[in-house]
Write a structure and sequence with these properties.
The structure holds 2 protein chains of 2 kinds. Chain A is an alpha/beta fold. Chain A is built from 20 helices and 19 strands. In chain A, the strands form 5 sheets. An 8-stranded mixed β-sheet of chain A has the order 7-8-16-15-12-17-18-19, with helices on both faces. Chain A has a 4-stranded mixed β-sheet with strand order 1-3-2-4. Chain A has a 3-stranded antiparallel β-sheet with strand order 9-11-10. In chain A, strand 15 and strand 16 (about 515-525) form a beta hairpin. Chain B is about 45% helix and about 15% strand. In chain B, helix 11 packs antiparallel against helix 12. Classes of the chains: A alpha/beta, B alpha/beta.
Chain lengths: ~650, ~260
């Protein structure tokens, strides 16, 4: 960078610091983030429709099915006051939408703010009629706002506007004592803002006042009309969704250096290209700023260890996303770069003959809804086998663990099936009865426990061992390769359960984006055990760890068993990742949701996490008793029994 | 002495259907969500028909011996003790199998001969066949909502029953029920029902079970005994239906707005 560029950048940054228009930093993070889910649920409950709650610049506003709440509420220092204020804004928002108040697309921001101001008394009246419990909330928030809200009163029209705000808040026209023309207008505004407003009169009144204001101020530029209620917004543009990144960006990278850009386009202006159509000069898309950002992204890291994050941030900050254009013209040409370099492995490129594709939904925790038909799981019925000698060698090596687990299973089985000498039971315990008679004859008090309780109906158990075969299991934990531990553990489980009546299957999974999730059925419920293990030895780690679709497909496979008690045993390094944004909280929430679905279908899930220490998110995914650390195969017998006892006993 | 019949507010033509099913000696299956009044309905009908009511709460461990009867040791004697089904047949009572779906299929099969035209019960341990008197009737209930897993009634069982489906009553009727049961004014009762309807309308909450009439009656009882409506609503309706933090708060916000 040249010295003049540096100087300019420094000046610019200083200017931004002084004006405070830079991106918000973590220090003044809005408390709104943690409240979004609550308010989305509440507005849905109140209206029966789905709402989106987002943080916006300035005081935000309300449009149909979209609430934009102020991100900065520095003028409210008490967190409780903030929460009440947000709640108030939610109720105001949904009520104004229920009353049918919507701004037109062509309204200016000034007019949108005026319209909201005029509509407030009607909205308040409706709130009190609908929600008797809201009275104290409305009173409190009106008081807070009129006390603390900072009105900017530099110009005549703003003074008029804020006077009107205050007068409406306190329902006191006496506040408008000033006789300036601005105040006269404001008092008219208060008069116009009577309860029982219709959308039509709202539109007309707000337009009249806007014209009057325009005459008054003789300024074309519209200053920031801040009212405690924000702006009345137009119906969202149908393809509004494309404002958001198509996939939710990850929110918590393990590196901890990522910071989310907090600036989001909330009050987007809509530009209709059809009206400005010029045949001779067709529109071309210009993404200069985006270019700047991507250039930085693909730049090289400096050898001295510095990076250009600050510059990249600036570039992103400068991106103007608040103007949206729509046209029916199709693009003449499209550049498209789907980078897949380096992500193929030999295994993925092989032509698969015996695959069947299944589509599954995925849980988007941010919007709290499913993405239907999102993931494609290709099921491969009989994957190639590995060497038989490897299975035999492992069998010899793991003999001790198998014996140990078998003994534990036997103990559980006996415990489960028969219980002698019970106070109550379906059968009479002959031994106990003879004892009792003898005791009676001897003139002593007999033991009343003379029944046998028996599980008359032994319900079938089907267990699917779900093996994580992603490339991450090719890494090492405490001196052992994760995939080896997983494979050995599977073998111990399979051999231990072989003499029992339980039905067993082995599935291995990895993924390569949502479009290509693989599920290899190493052993179906009816397949030979040895063949299954041999196939498992033929699996080589590849791809990524998309656990959600694997679990959903495992449910489908388990369903084929027809058994009453069904268990999915997940052997994994327990890090949900895939390179199309399936990571961080998104991945964790999807796994959690998939397990919830399993629970609803009566399928029990346990996870054996091959890693050396636990993480909080394991509990988040699998529940407090749904997982166990498996540092090596020797801890399998004891560990498995400790997590599975309750299930096996049931 | 005849007990006071329990209060029941008919919501459809279920009373009529019950009477006809009883007259025609047909078994009746009541399907509906928890807390919508299935059990109360059966109690009221038993009282109306002046028949004893024998209730079996079915569960996973229910065995056919539990239903039919068993031998007990009393002193040096072996005594036979009738199970509830046998007792109901002998007494010509109404046999109510609550949550029939929880019992294992092979246990239910014991009832097959009782629920079709044969109306008989064979007790293998006594080698005795009981024939049901005219007044005997089998009523079963099940909740299609939270059946664990894909547990469904076997068609051979289900098709023996006449099915009466229940759901939560419409606002006016439910208000009447809540007001009567909780001895509450009409106003707060109606508000409780409106609250419930808002929650019921929102499938996205993914609740295992939504707000039942029973929960509303509980909340109503708390209110009429002097608990603040917001507190009552939280303790008796919001807390029992979810553990999700955001949902709890949103539901509490809703309760605060409505009361």
């Amino acid at each position: 960078m040249e010295w003049d560029q540096r100087a300019f950048a420094w000046l610019y940054r200083s200017f931004r610091r002084v004006t405070g228009s830079g991106p918000s930093t973590d220090a003044d993070v809005s408390p709104l983030e943690s409240l979004t889910a609550r308010f989305e649920t509440l507005s849905h409950l109140l209206t029966g429709k789905k709402w989106e709650v987002v943080a916006g610049k300035a005081m935000g506003g309300v449009g149909p099915e979209r609430l934009v709440l102020p991100q900065r509420t520095a003028w409210l220092d008490d967190p409780e006051e903030q929460a009440s204020f947000f709640l108030y804004r939610v109720v105001v928002g949904v009520t104004s939408s229920e009353l049918g108040f919507v701004a037109g697309h062509d309204w200016s921001n000034r007019r949108r703010a005026l319209a909201m101001l005029i509509a407030i008394p009607s909205i308040h009246q409706e709130i009190l009629a609908r929600y008797p419990g809201a009275e104290s909330l409305v009173d409190r928030c009106t008081a807070i706002s009129s006390e603390r809200f900072q009105f900017d009163e530099q110009s005549a029209d703003l003074r008029c506007f804020s006077n009107a705000c205050r007068a409406i808040l306190r329902a006191d026209p006496g506040l408008l004592v000033d006789t300036s023309s601005a105040s006269i207008l404001a008092s008219e505004l208060v008069g116009a803002a009577t309860p029982g407003l219709s959308l039509r009169s709202l539109a007309d009144t707000s337009m009249d006042f806007e014209r009057a204001l325009e005459k008054l101020s003789r300024r074309r530029a519209v200053a920031d009309y801040r009212s405690p209620w924000g702006l009345l917004m137009p119906p969202s543009i149908p393809w509004n969704a494309s404002l958001e990144p198509p996939d939710d960006p990850q929110t918590n990278l393990p590196t901890g250096t990522e910071r989310k850009m907090r600036r989001r386009p909330t009050d987007v202006e809509y530009v209709d290209l059809e009206s400005q159509k010029d045949k001779d000069n067709p529109v071309v898309h210009s993404f200069e700023k985006v270019h700047t950002a991507t250039e930085y992204q693909s730049g090289r890291k400096q050898l001295d260890g510095s990076d250009q994050l600050a510059e990249q941030e600036e570039a992103l900050e400068e991106l103007e996303l608040s103007k949206l254009t729509r046209t029916s013209e199709t693009a003449q040409s499209v550049y498209r770069a789907d980078l897949r370099a380096g992500l193929h492995t030999a295994d993925l490129e092989e032509e698969q003959t015996s695959t069947r594709a299944h589509r599954y939904r995925e849980w988007n925790f941010k919007r709290r809804e499913y993405r239907d038909d999102w993931c494609t799981v290709n099921e491969q019925i009989s994957p190639p086998t590995g060497p038989a000698s490897a299975v035999a060698a492992a069998s010899r090596r793991l003999h001790g663990e198998v014996l140990c687990l078998q003994a534990e299973l036997k103990r559980l089985e006996l415990e489960r099936r028969w219980r002698n000498r019970q106070l109550d039971g379906s059968e009479i315990d002959i031994d106990a009865l003879v004892d009792r008679q003898a005791t009676l004859m001897a003139g002593r008090h007999p033991d009343p426990r003379i029944y046998v309780r028996r599980k008359v109906h032994d319900s079938e158990l089907a267990m699917l061992i779900l093996v994580d075969a992603s490339l991450s299991s090719d890494s090492w934990v405490s001196g052992k390769r994760i995939f080896d531990v997983v494979r050995d553990s599977t073998q111990v489980l399979v051999e231990s359960f072989a003499p029992t009546s339980a039905k067993l299957a082995i599935g291995a999974f990895y993924s390569n984006t949502r479009r290509d999730c693989r599920f290899l059925v190493a052993k179906g419920f009816e397949d030979d055990t040895h063949l299954g293990l041999q196939r498992l030895h033929g699996v080589a780690p590849a791809g990524y760890t998309r656990i959600g679709p694997a679990v959903r497909h495992a449910l489908e496979v388990l369903d084929r068993s027809g058994a009453r008690r069904r268990l999915i045993l997940l052997l994994t390094d327990a890090k949900p990742t895939d390179y199309d944004h399936y990571e961080g909280q998104y991945g964790v929430e999807d796994v959690r949701q998939a397990l919830r679905e399993a629970g609803e279908q009566g399928v029990h899930c346990l996870a054996l996490a091959v890693r050396d220490k636990g993480e909080a998110y394991l509990t988040q995914m699998f529940g407090p008793h749904g997982w166990l650390l498996l540092p090596d195969v020797h801890s399998l017998p004891g560990g498995f029994i400790s997590v599975a006892t309750d299930f096996l006993r049931s | 002495m005849r007990a006071i019949p329990p209060w029941y507010r008919p919501v459809g033509r279920e009373v009529e259907l019950f009477e006809h099913a009883h007259r025609q000696r047909l078994p009746l299956l009541l399907a509906g969500p928890t807390g919508c009044g299935k059990t109360r309905f059966v109690e009221a009908m038993a009282a109306q028909l002046d028949l004893p009511l024998i209730t079996v709460a079915c569960h996973d461990e229910t065995s056919s011996i539990d239903l039919v009867g068993r031998f007990l040791i009393r002193g040096a004697e072996t005594v036979w003790q009738d199970g509830p089904v046998t007792r109901a047949v002998r007494a010509g009572a109404i046999l109510y199998l609550d949550e029939i779906i929880e019992a294992r299929e092979d246990v239910i099969v014991v009832l097959h001969s009782l629920t079709d035209h044969r109306r008989e019960l064979y007790i293998d341990r006594l080698d005795e066949t009981l024939f049901a008197p005219e007044s005997f009737m089998v009523v079963a209930s099940f909740n299609p909502g939270y059946a664990r897993g894909f547990k469904e009634l076997r068609p051979s069982t289900r098709q023996r029953f006449v099915v009466q489906r229940f759901s939560y009553p419409e606002t006016k009727v439910e208000t009447e029920i809540v007001a009567h049961e909780a001895k509450l004014e009409n106003g707060p009762a109606k508000r409780l029902v409106e609250f419930a309807n808002k929650v019921r309308a929102m499938d996205e909450l993914q609740l295992a079970e939504t707000v039942s009439t029973r929960l509303l009656v509980t909340a109503g009882k708390l209110i009429s005994s002097g608990v603040a409506p917001r507190v009552a609503c939280n303790a008796a309706v919001v807390q029992p239906i979810t553990d999700d933090h955001a949902q709890l708060e949103a539901l509490q916000d809703l309760a605060n707005l409505m009361f």
